[in-house]
Structures are given as C-alpha cells and as structure tokens.
Amino acid sequence: MFQSKISGLGYYVPDNIITNDDLSKIMDTTDEWIQERTGIKERRHIVKGEDTTTTMGVKAAKIAIERSGVDYQDIDFIVFATISPDYYFPGPGVALQHELGLKTIGALDIRNQCSGFVYALSVADQFIKTGMYKNILVVASELQSLGLDMTDRGRGVSVIFGDGAGAAVLSREENPSKGILSTHLHSEGEHAKELALLAPGMGGRWITDILEDNSPDDESYFPHMNGQFVFKNAVVRFTEVIIEALQANNLQVSDIDLLIPHQANLRISQFIQKKFDLNDDQVFNNIQKYGNTTAASIPIALTEAWEQGKIKEGDNIVLAAFGSGFTWASAIIKW
Ligand code: UT7
C-alpha cells in the first residue's frame, strides 16, 4: 500500500467581477442582504465565448501540473468533478485530456455537486494507494453563471453561486504517515430534490418537452434550493463528517492546523468554527471574493491557502463538504 500526496495545486477564476451592487441592478436584492446572509461581497462570472467549464479546468490544471514538477507524460489518470459540464455528454474529463495533450489515459467524470472535489480526491487516492497509478490529475470546475435565474424569482439561489476552477496533482508518497490519511463519503438521496436542477433530464423534462411546451414559467431548468433546509442539514453533516475524520485517525480537534470547508455560506463556516472552537487562523474562507463555486470551492480555497503560506509541512489539513444530493464528505491530509 502506498500513500498519495498533493504534489501541485492551481486555480483559475475569470477576471469578470460581479459585485452585489451589480446584481441589485438586475434583481430585487441588496448588498446588505447578501453580505448579511451569505458573507459574499462579489463573485466571478465568465464572459460568454471566452471560457467554459473545460477551459477553466485546463487553466487551473496547467498551474497545478507545473507546480507539481510532474511531467505531462507521467500523468496516469484524470478525475474531473463538475455539475456544469460543457455538454450533456461526454463529460469534460475527455475534453481536458485532449486540451492538455495528455496521452490516451483514462478520464473519469464525477458528479457529486459541492462534495465533488472530495469525492474525486478519494477516488484518486484509492487508485494511488493500490499502486495502480502514480500521478493523477484531479480537477473541479464550474460554470454556474449562464445557468442561473437572474430574475427576482431566482434571487435566493443566483446571488450565491460563482464560476471558477481548481486542480490538484496527486502523486505516490512512500512515507506511510504523510499525504491523504483518510477520506469519508456519504449521501442521503431522500433529500435529492431540496437542492437540484431537474431539467433537462431523461426522467423529467427533456429538451423536446421544454421546446414543445414553450412555457416561460417553467422553473425546472433553473437550480432550485430549499435554502433553510439545506442550511440546517449542512451544519449537522459538516460537524459529523469532521468528527468522523478525526476519530478515524485518532486525532483531536486541537490537532487541526487548517480546516477548509466547502464555501457554501460564510455563516455555515462560522457555525462550524464556533462549534469546534477553532480560531480564525484554523479556518480558511474566501467565499467573500468568489461566492459558492460548488465542486471548485475547496481546491480554489486550498490553493489560495497554500499560496498565502497558511499550509506548512507536517500540518493536518481537514477538507469538508456538504451539498446537493444530499452528499457530504471529508478528507484529512498530513501535509
Ligand atoms: O453549496 C451547497 C449547499 N448550499 C448551502 O449550504 C446553502 C444553504 N442555505 C443558505 O445559505 C441560505 O439558506 C440562503 C443564503 C440560501 C438564504 O438565506 P436565509 O437566511 O435562509 O433566507 P431565507 O431563504 O429564509 O429568506 C429570507 C427572506 C425571504 O423573504 P421573506 O419571505 O422573509 O419576506 C426571501 O424571499 O429573504 C428573501 N430573499 C432575499 N432578499 C433579498 C431571498 N433571497 C434574497 C435576496 N435578496 N437575494
């Protein structure tokens, strides 16, 4: 058995900044409401035609590969997490393989919403632990902005989400006490429709139904979220899955050097921080600048934390996520 470690990190966000005031010009919302309820000050939206989920993923991946020191030809596998693929099929993993000029390695697409990156990391970790692969490129990229309901009707969802991508190269680590110590994955499909985008879907309304009906009031092709219900479940599941990860490694809360929660809502992160009595230096948040970028939020935050020198060798880094599905997950990394 081998360990896997993160050998390189990168992120990319579009230049186009959308402030809360910008949103208040197109829908019934205010900077005050958004900041008070979510902590978000601004987010990035792509300029149509300039970026896609794949191109953002490629930009983040190039930085991660460069920093890892791994040769492109030595990457053995791709895992790509997104809920906003360029196409209904195929998934963006293969497009990334092509754009990066990688040889004909496998490309796996993961769709686990806000938990997508931690799920992807877990999958990659298993392949490296068994010895099957040595270097795996894990990418999470989201283009939310083109799919949001930017009218008053969608304000409870649309102000939260942003575009961006993050990437990590996972490499074999011989030291058994370093790298990804464990990952913990969960789901509860009973609540699938509490945060979902139902159309187009083969089991619901397909494109042809939507075109035939021509019903402008149809909300099924916009994300729907029962915000308060999601919030209440999030704080419980975040707490559980962090405790589970600590217990699996005989660690205490005091052993956490840095917690990087999925950037769902600053109030959720603050709740978790208070619950575990962590100080400001032990929890990393950047939702204020980027909003909620779903699967991309953890790798973007992890990269920024690393760039800012907040992650040192030997640190215990905890990743935790909760989102649509419901799905939730955690990972503990000994840096
Ligand atoms: O990343 C995946 C997981 N996602 C999450 O974890 C998100 C969890 N949920 C949340 O973050 C919060 O529930 C939201 C930020 C989505 C909403 O905050 P809230 O404090 O739960 O607000 P609410 O939905 O209870 O709405 C309160 C009021 C409502 O008006 P009334 O009924 O009290 O008159 C809403 O219509 O705020 C209104 N409202 C808004 N007002 C101004 C909803 N959205 C907006 C808005 N601007 N953008």
Write up what this structure looks like:
- The protein is of the alpha/beta class and 335 residues long.
- It has two domains: 3-176, Thiolase/Chalcone synthase (Peroxisomal Thiolase, Chain A, domain 1, 3-Layer(aba) Sandwich); 180-334, Peroxisomal Thiolase, Chain A, domain 1 (3-Layer(aba) Sandwich).
- Helices cover 33% and strands 23% of the residues.
- It has eleven helices and 13 strands.
- It has helices spanning 20-24, 31-38, 53-68, 92-99, 116-129, 155-158, 207-213, 227-248, 266-275, 287-290, 297-307; strands spanning 3-12, 17-19, 42-44, 77-81, 106-110, 135-142, 164-173, 179-187, 195-196, 224-225, 258-261, 316-323, 327-334.
- The strands form four sheets. It has a five-stranded mixed β-sheet, sandwiched between helices.
- Helix 4 (92-99) links the parallel strand 4 and strand 5 (106-110).
- Helix 3 packs across helix 4 (92-99).
- The mean pLDDT is 96.
- Bound molecules: oxa(dethia)-CoA (UT7).
- Oxa(dethia)-CoA binds next to helix 2, helix 6 and helix 8.
